[in-house]
Amino acid sequence: MNGFNVKFGYRDNFLDNLQPVDILYNTRVSTDGCRATINALGLKHKELNDLLRETVQSGGKELVINNVFGQRYIGTRLYLPSEDNKLHIEVNKFPGNDLGAFLNGHRVIVHGNAQDGVGNTMDSGEIIVHGRAGDVTAMSMRGGKIFIRDNVGYRTAIHMKEYRDKVPVLVVGGTAQDFLGEYMAGGIVLLLGLNLQESEPHRANYIGTGMHGGVIYLRGCLAEHQLGKEVGVLPLDDQDKAKIDCYVREYCNHFGGNPEEILNGSFQKLIPVSLRPYGQIYAY
Amino acid sequence: MYDYLLPEFLVERREDSCIRCRVCERQCANNVHLYDTELDRFFLSEKDCVGCQRCVELCPTGALYVHPRLADYRPNSSWTRDKMQNLKKQAATGGVVLTGSGNDKPYRVYWDHLLLNASQVTNPSIDPLREPMEMQTFLGRKPDTLKIEFSEGKAKLASEMCPNVPVQIPLVFSAMSLGAISYPAFKSLAMAAKETGVLFNTGEGGLPVEMRDEYADCAIVQCASGRFGVDLDYLNSARIIEIKIGQGAKPGIGGHLPGEKVSDYIAQTRMIPRGTDALSPAPQHDIYSIEDLSMLIYALKEATNYTKPVSVKIAAVHNVAAIASGIVRAGADIVAIDGIRGGTGAAPLATRDNVGIPLELALASVDKRLRDEGIRNKCSVMAAGGIRSSADAIKAIALGADGVYIGTAALVAMGCTLCHKCYTGKCNWGICTQNPYLTKRLNPELTSQRLINLLKGWSHEIQEMLGGLGVNAIESLRGNHEHLRGVGLEEWELNVLGVKGAGE
Which domain holds residue B17? Predict the structure, then answer.
């Protein structure tokens, strides 16, 4: 604060009183070859991410982060363009918002619940959450895979998009809240509904509003009013079945469960009725 | 079906001058001129003329004359011709009336009611031709205090500095995305920015990979609601990252780049399939509050290892001062304010002409609010939207801006004649189109030179005016309302602007 004419204080919630990374590295990190264990208890998000970066620069390839309670942006600052430089990050307890935002090729496994913004604008890599995830999961995701064991929140997979060989995949074991796949422009969402009772519909309303690309596969039932008006429902063809088969098996590899049993459920496929939903609303 | 629309322009051809070279026919993407070889005469489709003056300027014998066709309806101050024409368009299509470029309604242009001071007798004016004049400014967050430590006779800066980006002239090219404008136009902006030591803004259409080595160093890249082309390489290559919340021409709404403009190249840069609509949602769906904005600002800072300033661009709206304060508190290093006269490639006419407030009022109130709260140093303020001349730019700086975004002025320098038909994709000047036949009319080597000339001219003019004020650094003028006086303004306007009336 400058001390002149100040009517309101200014406090930086994130950057005030940070501990230097070299001190943290000496006290918080224990390494065993390329495997490093980090104690995140009480760290601010910048401190933890400084520490992750420092650990990786000192040769860490496998990071185990313990006592994570709400620290944001885990994985975001680890931009390592070369292909053979991909990390394996295990997060114990509960990471904060924007887990793996802009993620670039790393694999993040969370043993606990995740919050909002998992995989925000993620580019490539993998996020596996042994628990639930919050709102705007996989927003604007453009590549890689996200597996969520349980439910996800509102506005999941909003504006997900694909380009050529980059096709993002989101697999959710439970159900989703409203606006699933809104503005979706590409990619694959698989919603398994494993925690729903038989004939209990999925939670989401306005599914795929404004959708103009990509596909949502949905296991379980759904009333027509739950769909956005830009979405059409189709039965599965063989290609769809092969894709679902592959992702369900991958899901079961991560979280357990019997893939045959899951695949026996009834699936439907939601796709956009037009690539240009708003092509006709203008007067030229 | 008849559309019941009157032609907007009258096209006249002086038959005695016309040499039948058919340049007009080839140059017009709207097919206004049609030559019949058998009859040896031109036929006109005046209805399709948008008044872009391309044929007039290229006619080698000056045989063409295009001028607005006056309303042939009964004159009416309330039901003006454009109101009636729009009604007819809508009656025919049931659609939203589109337009391009900036607001053309006669809202008060405050720049024209603000006058600059000059030194007379009591302090000397400075001649910029002979004396140094500092035009460089730095964009980014400044520390509250500067701590300097002395050890062994050497001074060392002890305060922690936030990333700042120097610009040699406080003029920056506005966000115009590749996709909205053509590749040559986009490249011209980049080349001119590099040459003059300023910055250009990529808009939200991404930055082509092959341009990154050469031009990323003078690029402001946008992260907008569509997140087109946003990945870590894009973010890390840039100089500044801008979160686009709103645009002066269309506050509160998103953008639709129609599928037919999404060519292979555009698809590649935006990373979306060819031919699909590129839809930018109205809000960023991960930002519903200042706290959420803070989350994205820090996500971008994390993504770039805290090495780049993060800017937040908003449209000037009613509570802009409070919003700007929130943005600074959320961690933004730069706040860009885009006024109601800001341009666009396409916007609903109703929104462009009726939503938002003038930049001048917004800028003055934001600057005042940030000063009152003691956080003005936490951010740089960029002013955008309808800056037409060096005089507007210098007045914006005196009203409190650190730098000025110029968009429409740059387009005009490239050839644009403000025909407002950017949304049709048929720009005869090759600026706002993806049609290769039209885009090759722009040669980036030549066009960038025009932009460089423009910046050079403005820079000289600003230096002359600064010298006249007795100020020798652009940063000394920033927010100095004492150098401004208002004429023809009401008291509330003077109060909002924070300037005295002329003669006071």
Answer: 9-95
